[in-house]
Specification:
By secondary structure, this protein is mostly helical. The chain folds into two domains: 34-123; 127-263, no CATH class. The protein is built from 13 helices and five strands. The strands form two sheets. The protein has a three-stranded antiparallel β-sheet. Strand 3 and strand 4 (198-202) form a beta hairpin. Helix 3 (34-54) packs across helix 5. The longest helix has 21 residues, at 34-54. The protein is globular and about 75 Å long.
Length: 263
């Protein structure tokens, strides 16, 4: 029974996406009904609408007609795998990277990735963010081996070639009148210290610092990674700016508590 049901569900899903005569007789009978075409159009439209809602900066860049045509091509490759359409489109940036009509827009996939990171930050688990005071509460003897744990909603990205963040931010914030964009690599940090997702530009040193923290490396090692990227980086300012943005939720190690104790 289970195998037959799974076969029927797969055939039914293919029939929604592909306008051809299904091999499964039961599905073929459904497709023959006049209402099935309406159902198919409704499902595809719902998926395209969800993609447009989940990737607003991309849609703003290319326009509704181009976006919806591209989204329909993406939908044809597979229906959502989760009930919530908020999560739909995780593979859309990769799809755009290989989509022939987007060949003249090499930055489009990067913009889509930032739209996706916004969704992930928005939907991430809640947690209190720590501030600068968290570091002042650590015994100096242990500070170098302490670990900063990224906040569940923190997302970051570095683009070494294109100004992805500037392009994304202008379309996300609908700021088209800020003049010419300097064509250079950029980084971005998205956080959600409160109820709303926030974003800020960061450099490659900050991105590598966050990468190190996400791998549970000690503070000394994370700072070394930042300095490898930029030997002139002001690491105190870098760490403070990330703390101020709400990028971390905890400092310590699983088996230690580095906070100072009263004498």
């Amino acid at each position: 029974m289970g195998a037959r049901l799974a076969h029927f569900q797969d055939a039914f899903a293919r029939a929604i996406l592909i306008d051809a005569q299904p091999a499964d007789p039961a599905v073929a009978d459904l497709v023959a009904q006049p209402a099935f075409a309406v159902y198919r159009n409704t499902v595809v439209k719902g998926c395209v609408d969800a993609l447009q809602a989940n990737f607003p900066a991309v849609a703003g860049l290319v326009g509704d007609e181009w976006f919806r045509a591209a989204a329909a091509e993406f939908v044809a490759d597979g229906l959502p795998k989760e009930p919530s359409l908020l999560a739909y489109g995780d593979a859309f940036p990769a799809f755009l990277a290989g989509f022939p009509p987007a060949a003249d827009l090499p930055y489009l996939a990067g913009v889509a990735r930032l739209d996706r990171l916004w969704t992930e930050a928005h939907a991430a688990a809640d947690a209190p963010a720590i501030g600068r005071e968290a570091l002042t509460g650590v015994d100096p003897e242990w500070l170098g081996v302490a670990v900063l744990q990224p906040h569940p909603a923190a997302r970051w990205s570095w683009s070494g070639r294109d100004p992805i963040y500037s392009i994304w931010r202008r379309n996300r914030e609908e700021r088209a009148d800020e003049g010419e964009i300097a064509w250079r690599g950029e980084g971005v940090l998205l956080t959600r210290p409160g109820d709303a997702v926030e974003w800020m530009a960061i450099d490659r040193a900050a991105c590598l610092f966050l990468d190190a923290c996400s791998h549970a490396l000690a503070l000394d090692e994370a700072l070394a990674a930042a300095l490898d990227a930029d030997p002139d980086a002001n690491v105190v300012r870098l760490v403070n700016s990330l703390l101020d943005a709400g990028a971390f939720c905890r400092i310590g190690l699983p088996s230690h508590d580095f906070r100072r104790t009263s004498p």
